[in-house]
Design a protein that fits this description.
The protein is an alpha+beta fold. The chain is built from 21 helices and 8 strands. The chain has a 4-stranded antiparallel sheet with strand order 2-3-1-4, sandwiched between helices. The radius of gyration is 30 Å and the shape is elongated.
């Protein structure tokens, strides 16, 4: 119980005299800020509630408009019945279906036909195997909204029931889309409340106050609502792609980055309260002290995220502005609303560790001072050892599993995927949607002949026609989404695209286009992110060497984090594939967020150098004074991203794991040891070519 008394002990320092007018202004400004944010929340609330309706979570929505499979999907939608909901109902019994099973299936499907107005004729059998019976349920009336389509899927599942060893699964494209939407819609509540709980626990441990921890959490919630409203407006105005993944990541960033900014501000505000009698003046001093670093760090994160606008993949391109809006809303709330609340509540918000005016500033904990001392003694050995460790971990990227398939995208198997797998076991040739070729109707016969003559094609049938286009359904000899099917898709495109003007699509083609576009985006976006971040760091730190050091450090963290993912995704998590967008998105987040912490450390190191400290002393002092705050901020950010590990989608689990591990590596290894040791080893040269790079005497 000694800590509270240390905090509240004050000296007899009389408060300075203040003018009455200034006092009234000091009281009015926080109330005005609070009123402004109440108005913002009142306006943003209804708009934020509409964001879930803006989500686009089909695989084709992720692809660029120029992708071949995207064109096929759009053309299919324009065909007669193209927008309808198509299902397959799969009946299965281990050991073989009985006559009663078949009668039960026929009766249930007949009930579906009586209850709904179906198009394309009566439901018919597409597979009759010894242990599996599959019906194709003709789609509902086209033109229905999403709610009506989902209701149709739900009703078919209700009517098609098994029991007594008979299993029934409803699959097909309509069921898969419905399951995807259900999974993404179920993310919002659990993701938000789990994030809130994790941040709350960490803030209670950090602040050790029954009240203080509530304020950053409340302000982050306000920022999240404002960000959702802002993204909804962007979607309506510019048509940016909003996915369940991007919305979830935005919430994580608002709470993670916002809490980081709050930790820095509250830490500085606590210091100023010991030197300044009035909370209002203490807050002004705190904002002047840490404001530039917070603005620079948030600006760096936003700039890095906005580089995703250069991506060709719709989901990645939409992720950039969505995440940037979240970071900027968190910045705005934490630098305006949080200070207003802290000033209005006064010193008592810190109870029981109240920082009294004139009280002695507690000495920093010795952990980071000890770390700095160990680094200062052997900087080159520490730097070499850390670099070798990161390099060894990066080799794990060689063990990353291949591209993620559609039926491996869920951590728990939904009914539509179970139907697909049952079909795959019974008849691989009918196990999934076929490759789809869209041909100009005038050349449909030529295209059909060319398709049948293409290597790897087992069969091809002519389908619907409309709007000058004809559908050709192609079954490959190889299993769906295998390397053999991909080779067949490539062969079809080589045969058809140039001469016949046809387009090749379908689920396998969509996955191939996702992988190809993601690879293209990495080559375009990664250099842009590096250039943008490097430019901001050069301007902020007045140096070329220090920014290059920070950028190289975050690149090493990214490689090591992906390597750790490669070592655990398959053996530990049992994942069969890696999301194609994981390398790019994890790079953007780790570089932007990692440089964020580097700014705090190097900015303080530069301040110490400007004050005349020798290079080694400046580096160790910066680590000692910022280490605790950076460690707390890193723990909060890593914990918020780790919330994604409990989500039902493999892509989110992989993203959350890699970013959380990367943040921890960056916080406790790279910032603490490698950047500090490199700065000590380089001495004044770390600030080259700025004026601080001139040699000086001292350790």
């Amino acid at each position: 119980m000694g800590a509270p008394s240390t905090e509240t002990t004050s000296t007899a320092v009389p408060p300075p005299t203040r003018g009455r007018g200034r006092g009234r202004g000091a009281r009015a400004i926080p109330w005005a800020v609070l009123a402004l944010w109440i108005a913002i929340v009142a306006t943003a609330g209804p708009l934020a509630g509409r964001l879930a309706d803006d989500q686009q979570n089909r695989a084709v929505d992720y692809l660029p408009a120029s992708a071949d499979s995207t064109r096929v999907a759009r053309l299919q939608d324009a065909l007669p019945g193209g927008e309808a909901t198509e299902l397959v109902v799969v009946y299965h019994r281990d050991g073989g279906l009985t006559a009663a099973d078949r009668d039960k299936a026929a009766a249930q499907i007949a009930g579906v036909a009586r209850a709904h107005r179906l198009t394309g004729g009566a439901p018919h059998v597409v597979l009759s195997h010894g242990d599996t019976l599959t019906y194709s349920v003709a789609s509902t009336e086209p033109g229905q909204d999403d709610a009506a389509k989902d209701a149709f899927v739900t009703d078919v599942r209700h009517r098609a029931e098994g029991g007594g060893g008979l299993t029934v699964h409803v699959g097909g494209p309509g069921a898969l889309n419905s399951d995807m939407k259900e999974v993404y819609s179920s993310l919002d509540g659990p993701l938000l409340w789990t994030t809130v709980a994790v941040v709350a626990v960490l803030l209670i441990l950090i602040y050790r106050s029954p009240l203080l921890w509530l304020l950053p959490l409340l302000v982050a919630g306000v920022a999240d609502a404002a960000a959702m409203a802002g993204v909804h407006v962007l979607h309506q105005a510019f048509g940016i792609t909003v996915t369940g993944q991007s919305q979830g990541v935005m919430t994580i960033l608002v709470f993670g980055a916002g809490t980081d900014y709050a930790l820095l501000l509250v830490s500085r505000y606590r210091e100023e309260l010991r030197r300044v009698p009035r909370p209002y003046d203490a807050m002004r001093a705190a904002l002047r002290g840490c404001g530039p670093a917070v603005l620079a760090s948030s600006g760096t994160v936003a700039a890095g995220l906005l580089c995703l606008l250069a991506a060709d993949l719709n989901s990645s391109r939409g992720m950039g502005p969505i995440a940037a809006v979240g970071v900027l809303c968190a910045l705005a709330a934490m630098t305006t609303l949080l200070p207003a609340l802290l000033v209005l509540l006064g010193r008592r918000v810190f109870w029981p560790l109240v920082p009294g005016y004139g009280s002695e500033v507690p000495r920093p904990r010795g952990l980071f001072a000890a770390m700095g001392g160990s680094v200062a003694r052997r900087p080159l050995a520490v730097l070499a050892g850390g670099a070798m460790l990161l390099g060894a971990l990066a080799l794990g990227t060689l063990a990353l599993p291949g591209s993620l398939k559609n039926d491996d995208a869920f951590t728990s198997v939904p009914e539509s995927v179970a139907a697909m797998r049952t079909l795959a076991e019974a008849d691989p040739g009918r196990s999934a949607q076929p490759i789809t070729v869209m041909a100009p109707t005038g050349r449909a016969a030529e295209v059909l002949a060319a398709v049948r003559g293409t290597e790897g094609v087992a069969s091809a049938e002519r389908g619907r026609s409309g709007g000058g286009w004809t559908e050709v359904s192609v079954t490959a000899e190889a299993p769906p989404e295998s390397s053999g099917e991909t080779a067949t898709i490539h062969a079809l495109r080589a045969e058809l695209d140039g001469f016949y003007g046809a387009h090749v699509g379908g689920p396998g083609a969509q996955q191939d286009d996702l992988a190809g576009t993601s690879s293209r985006d990495r080559w375009v976006v990664v250099p842009l992110v590096l250039a943008a971040v490097l430019l901001i760091l050069v301007v902020l730190l007045r140096s070329l060497v220090a920014p290059l050091l920070l950028v190289l450090a975050v690149i090493a963290v990214w490689g090591a984090s992906l390597g750790i993912g490669g070592l655990v995704f398959g053996p530990l998590f049992g994942f069969e594939g890696t999301d194609p967008g994981l390398p790019l998105l994890s790079f953007v987040f780790l570089v932007a967020l990692g440089v964020d912490y580097g700014i705090f450390l190097m900015h303080r190191m530069r301040e110490e150098s400007l004050a005349g400290a020798a290079p080694a002393i400046a580096a160790v002092t910066a680590l000692r004074t910022t280490g605790g705050v950076i460690a707390s901020a890193g723990l909060v950010l890593a914990a918020t991203f780790s919330v994604l590990v409990n989500m039902p989608l493999v892509s989110l689990v992989e993203m959350g794991f890699v970013v959380a591990v990367g943040v921890l590596l960056d916080t406790f290894l790279v910032r603490t040891y490698l950047v500090t040791s490199a700065s000590i080893a380089l001495r004044e040269r770390v600030w080259w070519p700025g004026r601080l790079s001139r040699p000086r005497t001292g350790p």
